[in-house]
Design brief:
Layout (H helix, E strand, L loop, with lengths): L16 H9 L3 E3 L4 E3 L17 E4 L2 E4 L1 E3 L2 E8 L22 E3 L28 E7 L12 E7 L17 H5 L3 E5 L4 H4 L4 H6 L10 H16 L5 E11 L1 H10 L10 E5 L24 H11 L7 H9 L2 H5 L10 H6 L15 H6 L8 E6 L13 H5 L7 H8 L7 H27 L4 E6 L19 H4 L4 H4 L5 H20 L20 E4 L5 E4 L5 H12 L4 H4 L2
Parallel strand pairs: 4-7, 9-10, 9-11, 11-12, 12-13, 13-14, 14-15
Antiparallel strand pairs: 1-2, 3-4, 5-6, 6-8, 8-10, 15-16
Amino acid sequence: MNTLGHHVLDKFGSYSVLTQTRLKRLPTLLVSSSVAVTLAGCGGGGGSSITPDPTIAMTGGGAVQGAMTNGVIAYKGVPFAAPPVGSLRWQPPQPIAAWSGVRQTTSFGHDCMQANDPAVTPLATTPSEDCLYLNIWRPANSTAAATQNPKLPVMVWIYGGGYVVGGTSMPQYDGTQFAKQGVILVTFNYRVGRFGFFGHPALTAAAAQSGQVLGNYGYMDQIAALKWVQLNIANFCGDPGNVTLFGESAGGESIHNLLTSPLAAGLFQKAINESGNGRVNQYYGRSLTRNSKTVGASAEEQGTVFAQEFGITGTDANALQALRALSADQVVDGLDVTTLNTPQNVATFSGGAIVDGKLVLDEPENLYNSGQFAKVPLMIGVNNADLGFSTPGITTKDQAYAIFGAQNLAAASAAFDPKGTASVAAVESQISRVITMDEPARFVARNFTSRGVPTYLYRFSYVAQSIQNQVSGATHGAEVPYVFDTLASTYGTALTSQDEQVAQRMIAYWAAFAKTGNPSDAGQISWPAYNIALDNQIEFTSTGTMQVDQPNPMKAQIDLVQPLNDTNQTVNRQYQ
């Protein structure tokens, strides 16, 4: 066994001090019983006479080999934790088993177990519980890659999917174009559904002596992946001191929880949040164990109901063994984005983040208001036809405006329907979007800015030319293939030059922010930092241009919603 065979992980995937020391001492030339190669070209030649192979790099588990295409080297299916199967189901991520020789990492590892509907989530793999793999794209030839001290910026992506679907094999998450921008792109899988967010009294009892963190296993995977990056990315020419975390929807919400979690401290230096709310978690007030602040059922209570569906009762080791003996399909039990809010799934799935007091301390808004968050530069924004949760039974505009109070009916009408021609459904949808997305984004921007943290607010309003007559605006998640410049994966031959120009602008801004913390360094139109007095943002307009709005054209709408969100009067409206 090589010297990395005995590495130990802490609760969330950090190598022990002993292993870190061994990693630092690794020579450029790795020699095992079956291989002698020069690694990645990121640490210098070390005087070796062997021709360096830039597709091979060292990780904490052993050497990996990727594939080079058009100047970009991609490593796919690199394990960052042990398969969370059998007795490791509902456990924090555990150490990987080291390997000898060179592991081929040229195809994606399994995406995490979920209900697989290609029409909803076009995964390129068959989902499995064995899914804790990550992928890396890096430029094959760069100034940094040829130096003794590579310092390429690193971007780490967290996918969305309501915490029930999603995976890194989706074509729109390909990192090739980021690598061509001079950025190393890392994507990783994390457990979703009941595999990723689950509580049960038997799990709590089993962890009583160890103090093991419970419930948010998907977030534990995210932290483990970020720690893997800290320890390994230098071997891929990356700078562990310049890591930008970015994500969309549930991925954006994950970032809010990582920004406010003490267990993620120091693992990234910048963040980009796309349509991630920022006020409250996906299901407000979900605690692990019932307490005075619990809203609705606790995660343990939900887990108990789920277990009873399969005839599993009790809270002892036998109950836990029976739960872990369920098949993966039984654990999924039909849970996906279309069934997420059915009575059965509301009763048996937390919906995402669980307030456990260790990893997730509280709702993000409470921690932002108290200043308990990582003070790192932030980009944050939403789409102009983003996600909202309309209230059923609204049949008149006055009913829609009633949430603002009788004294604000005229102001609400002027803000949400200035021409008086909008339909009731359109007004209600817009109010719900501002509650769920627009106002929370500004709330977060104001909190960061008020504490001296550089913050950049955006609004994405562009719609691909081929579908402009089919949709009213940029819907939830529509910006993602523009950010990655992977539009062909979504629009195919209908892609236009204007569409591509918008993508090129977006990826340039995102990459510039990752490099320097200032998106204006992209060389596009200057993107000023958010200023509370100006209430400014940059907009990717419906015509494909860029413009700076000072103030935000949505200001009147957001100002009406703010006091309601401040006092949580909208929570039940969003999360019924």
